[in-house]
Amino acid sequence: TLASAPVMIRAVAQVETSVSSSLAAQPVEPGGSTTIWGAGFVPGEFVAVEVIGRGANRILAGGEANASGAFAFDVTIGEEGSLSQEGVYTLKATGDKGSESTGPLLVAAK
User: Fold this and answer.
1) Which pLDDT tens digit goes with each residue over 42-94?
2) Contact of 14 with 39, CB cutoff 8 Å
3) Could you tell me the sign of the dihedral formed by the alpha carbons of 39, 42, 48, 50, in that order?
């Protein structure tokens, strides 16, 4: 005897992510402020920018990409803590629709 069972097939919508996203920041000194720019993200995508590495892992900024998929976030680097050490850090921007980009952040005294 053969048994049969109903099968349901569902279509899964694919989210189109950005093919090429970019991320840049101005050098900053400990205690100073800088701007982080991103482009190539999905328009309206919520983006979180974090610094990673050297014990400094934390979110620096977040917001929505504009209609062109770009953003600019102003951030202040504290004078104390792991980001107060001079050096090059990695920035990572991650969007809620799958876009992602990395770039350097230089922290250095003038």
Assistant:
1) 999 999 999 987 777 889 999 999 999 999 999 998 877 777 788 999 999 99
2) no
3) negative
The pTM assigned to this predicted structure is 0.78
Measure the CA–CA gap between 60 and 74, rounded to whole angstroms. Answer: 9
Nearest to 105 by CA among 93, 82, 84, 87: 87
Per-residue pLDDT of 14-49, as tens digits, reads 555 555 899 999 999 988 999 999 999 999 999 999
The answer to whether the beta carbons of residues 70 and 81 sit under 8 Å apart is: no
Spatial CB neighbours of 57, under 8 Å, sequence gap ≥ 6: 50, 51
Name residue 28's beta-bridge partners: 107
Burial 23-57 (b: 16+ CB within 10 A, else e): bebeebbbebebebebbbbbeebebebbbeeeebe
In the chain, the DSSP E strands lie at 22-25, 33-39, 46-52, 58-64, 71-76, 87-95, 100-107
